[in-house]
Specification:
about 15% strand; eight-stranded mixed sheet; MetI-like fold; six-stranded mixed sheet; about 600 residues; alpha/beta; 21 helices; Rossmann fold
C-alpha cells in the first residue's frame, strides 16, 4: 500500500474523491440558497461575474446547483453500488451452496447478463419499476450486479480448493457455514476495494439515466438532471453545460483511478488444493498386521482418460516408525498421501485391495464412522502451512474446531486443548499464539501450529507432505526433531514425504522409493547409502553431494525426465533414463524381496 500511495494516479484519484466527499458535506450548507433562488432578470444567462457558469431557465445559479448536486449524486451512486454489490455477491456465491447442476445454471445466467449491455439493462429495469430516482438507482444496481457476481464467483472458485476448505468439507461442515466462515471472509478485501471502482461506474450510469429523463425528477436534481435541463440551451449559451459535465467527468475519473490502484494493490494468487472424493475398494478379510497403523495394498488413483498417477502401491507404516516416501516431483508421492487421507481431487478415484487404518478396514465403514476414524486417528501436515490455515481465523479457533467436531468438546475445553497442543509443539507463548492470525507467525511457527492441529485428536498416523520444503535449514531441523519427538511420545506412525534424501536419511526408519506412480524400492534407512539396488535410487543418492564429493567434477544428474502419468510405458518406467537398461526391461519387473526388509523392482538387481 505504501508503494500504491506513491503512485501519482493514486494520489490524483484520492484527491478528487476527497474533494467530492467534502463538497457533498458542505455544499448544501453553503450554497443551497443560491442554488434555489429565482432570478427573473437572469434567465438562461451566460457566464458573468455573478454567475460564472450561467443560469438555468429560472435564473438559478448553475455553479451553486452543480456543487449542491454533489450530495445527491454521491448518495444515489452509493445506494446503487450497495444494491449491485449485494445482488452480485449473492449470485456469485450461489454456485458454492447449490447442487452442481443448479450452480452451473446460475453461472450461465450470470455470463449472459455480463454480455448484455449494462445501460440497456438499467434502462429496462427503470422502465419496469418506474421513472424517478428510485427506478434509476435500482436499474443501475441491477446493471452492476452481474459484474460483482462474476468477480465473486472467480474469487470463490480460486480458494474453493484450499486445504482448509477441503478439510471443512471432509468434516461435513454445512455449506452455508463454509461460505460464511471460510469463503466470504477471505474474499472480502478485493470485493470491498472493487466497490470504489463500481462507485465511479454508478455515478456515470445514474448521470446517463437522468440525462435521458429516466432518473431524478424535478424539483430534485443531480448532475445528470442538470445536464438534461441545460442541453436545450447548449447551442445558445454553451457554458451552461460545463459545470455538470466537468463534475461527472472528474468524479468518474477519481473513483476509477482510486479503484484501479486499490485493485492492483490487493491482487494475489490464492493457493489451491484438492477436494474430497469417495473411496472404492474390495473388502479385505486378512488379519491386520501386528503394530501396523496403516496398511494399503494395490492402491491405485485414476482419473478419466486413463491417467493413473499412483499404480498398485503397497505400503505399511507401523507404530513409532517413520517411513520416508522418496522420489522426484511427479512420482505420485503427494497423490498417495491424498488417497490415504481421502482427499483425491475430483474427478479422481481411489481403489485399493486393502486399506486399513489402525487395524480397521476403512472401506467397510459408513460415512459417519469413516469421518470419525479419519478425523481422530489421521493427521496431515502439508507443505505450505499458509494454505492449510484459514487466514481469516485465529490459530486457536482453527485448532479448537477439530476437538469440537470430532471429540464433542465444548468451546472452552477445545480452546484449552488447543493451547496445550501449541505448548506441546514447543511454541513459547501458546496462549498468545492461539489469539493470533496465521500471517502474524513465521513459517516455522505456522508449521508447528499445523502439527499441533494434527495432535488435537489422538492420531495414530501422521502424514507429513514435504513439511520443511519452504523453511530454512535451521527451522527445518527443529521441525524434523519435533516430528520425531511427537512420534516417539505418542506412539504414532508417520509417513514422511520428501524428495530430499538428506532429510529422509536423518529422520526416517524405512524408505520407500517411488517412480512414475510405482514403488521401485523399499529398504531400511541404514541400507540407503550403501546397499541401494535400484538404479533410480542409486542415481538419487549420487546426485546428493557430501563432504567427500570431488568438487572438480560436475554433479551427477539423471538424464531425461520422468514420464507423465498418462505416458507410463508397460515395461520398466525408468528404462529410458537407465544406463543398465536391456531388452528385459520392456517387461515391467515385479517388486521382489532381495534380503529381509529389502525389496526392489529391477531385473538387474534380482
Amino acid at each position: 500500500m505504501r508503494r500504491t500511495w506513491k503512485n501519482p494516479t493514486t494520489l490524483i484519484g484520492a484527491l478528487l474523491v476527497t474533494v467530492l466527499v467534502v463538497l457533498a458535506v458542505i455544499a448544501p450548507l453553503l450554497w443551497d440558497e443560491a442554488a434555489t433562488r429565482f432570478d427573473p432578470d437572469s434567465i438562461n444567462a451566460g457566464s458573468s461575474a455573478a454567475h460564472p457558469l450561467g443560469t438555468d431557465a429560472l435564473g438559478r445559479d448553475l455553479l451553486a446547483r452543480t456543487l449542491v448536486a454533489t450530495r445527491l449524486s454521491l448518495e444515489l451512486a452509493a445506494l446503487a453500488t450497495a444494491i449491485g454489490a449485494s445482488l452480485g455477491i449473492l449470485l456469485g456465491v450461489l454456485p458454492t451452496v447449490l447442487p452442481r447442476r443448479t450452480g452451473r445454471f446460475v453461472v450461465g445466467v450470470v455470463d449472459a447478463l455480463v454480455a448484455f449491455p449494462s445501460l440497456l439493462l438499467a434502462m429496462f429495469t427503470a422502465v419496469i419499476v418506474g421513472l424517478g430516482a428510485q427506478g434509476a438507482v435500482l436499474g443501475i444496481g441491477v446493471a452492476l450486479a452481474p459484474t460483482f457476481a462474476r468477480i465473486t464467483h472467480t474469487l470463490t472458485a480460486s480458494i474453493a480448493q484450499a486445504d482448509y476448505i477441503a478439510a471443512a468439507r471432509m468434516l461435513r461442515v454445512p455449506r452455508l457455514r463454509v461460505l460464511t466462515r471460510h469463503v466470504l471472509p477471505n474474499i472480502a478485501e478485493p470485493l470491498i476495494l472493487n466497490l470504489t471502482q463500481a462507485m465511479g461506474g454508478a455515478l456515470l450510469g445514474l448521470s446517463a439515466m437522468s440525462f435521458l429523463g429516466l432518473g431524478v425528477q424535478p424539483p430534485s436534481y443531480d448532475w445528470g438532471r442538470l445536464l438534461f435541463e441545460a442541453f436545450g440551451h447548449v447551442y445558445v449559451t454553451p457554458v451552461v453545460i460545463v459545470g455538470p459535465a466537468v463534475a461527472v467527468t472528474l468524479a468518474g475519473v477519481g473513483f476509477t483511478l482510486l479503484g484501479d490502484a486499490f485493485a492492483k494493490a490487493a491482487s494475489r494468487t490464492p493457493q489451491t488444493a484438492g477436494t474430497v472424493t469417495a473411496t472404492k475398494a474390495e473388502p479385505a478379510t486378512e488379519a491386520p498386521e501386528e503394530d501396523a497403523v496403516l496398511e494399503v495394498r494395490d492402491l491405485t488413483v485414476s482419473f478419466p482418460g486413463g491417467v493413473r498417477p499412483v499404480r498398485n502401491l503397497s505400503l505399511t507404516v507401523r507404530a513409532r516408525e517413520i517411513v520416508g516416501l522418496l522420489g522426484e516431483s511427479g512420482s505420485g508421492k503427494s497423490m498417495t498421501a491424498a488417497a490415504i487421507g481421502q482427499l483425491v481431487p475430483y474427478p479422481g478415484q481411489m481403489t485399493a485391495a486393502r486399506y486399513r487404518l489402525c487395524g480397521t478396514n476403512v472401506d467397510t465403514l459408513n460415512a459417519h464412522d469413516r469421518r470419525k476414524l479419519l478425523g481422530s486417528s489421521l493427521a496431515m501436515v502439508f507443505q505450505d502451512p499458509t494454505a492449510s490455515l484459514n487466514p481469516a481465523l485465529r490459530i486457536g479457533g482453527q485448532l479448537a474446531e477439530v476437538a469440537t467436531v470430532h471429540s464433542g468438546a465444548t468451546k472452552a475445553q477445545a480452546h484449552e486443548r488447543a493451547v496445550e497442543r501449541l505448548a506441546q509443539v514447543r511454541i513459547r507463548e501458546p496462549q498468545a499464539t492461539a489469539d493470533q492470525h496465521p500471517h502474524e507467525l513465521s513459517g516455522g511457527m505456522r508449521q508447528r501450529a499445523v502439527i499441533a492441529m494434527g495432535l488435537m485428536g489422538t492420531p495414530q498416523l501422521i502424514i507429513a507432505d514435504e513439511p520443511t520444503t519452504a523453511l530454512d535449514v535451521t527451522v527445518q531441523r527443529e521441525v524434523l526433531r519435533l516430528l520425531r519427538e511427537v512420534v516417539d511420545d505418542s506412539g504414532a506412525g508417520a509417513l514422511f514425504i520428501s524428495h530430499d534424501i538428506a532429510v529422509v536419511s536423518e529422520l526416517c526408519d524405512r524408505v520407500v522409493v517411488m517412480y512414475a506412480g510405482r514403488v521401485v524400492e523399499e529398504l531400511s534407512v541404514h541400507q540407503l547409502a550403501t546397499e541401494a539396488a535400484h538404479p533410480y535410487t542409486r542415481a538419487l543418492i549420487g546426485s546428493l553431494p557430501d563432504m567427500s564429493t570431488d568438487r572438480t567434477r560436475p554433479l551427477d544428474t539423471i538424464p531425461g525426465r520422468q514420464p507423465a502419468p498418462a505416458e507410463v510405458p508397460s515395461g520398466c518406467a525408468f528404462a529410458q533414463r537407465c544406463t543398465l537398461a536391456s531388452d528385459r526391461c520392456q517387461v515391467r519387473p515385479p517388486l521382489v524381496e532381495l534380503t529381509p526388509g529389502h525389496h526392489a523392482a529391477c531385473w538387474e538387481a534380482q
